[in-house]
Write a structure and sequence with these properties.
99 residues, alpha+beta, three-stranded antiparallel beta sheet, two-stranded antiparallel sheet, elongated
Amino acid sequence: MAKSLGKADIGAHTATKLQGTHTEGNAALNAVLDSITEALKQGSSVTLTGFGTFEVREIKARKVHAVRGAQAGQMVSVPAHKRAAFRAGTELARAVTEK
């Protein structure tokens, strides 16, 4: 199984790519993530050509069968809500599937 990278790992890798300090790498990463977050909060989608698209999806209200802890046969209401979503771009999808 592949290693899971955290935010600090990506910040360090960014610093290396930019030939800067870890602080500068983390600042650059945080600036990008903050920009994406703000755009999604405002209802915009963010497209990074070749990498992918971040967007907010509207999820409709629905009723589902109860899961653990609820009485048998009871339906649970799931209210309408928004969810952040990511759709991989062509270049990212191709890079992941290549060996």
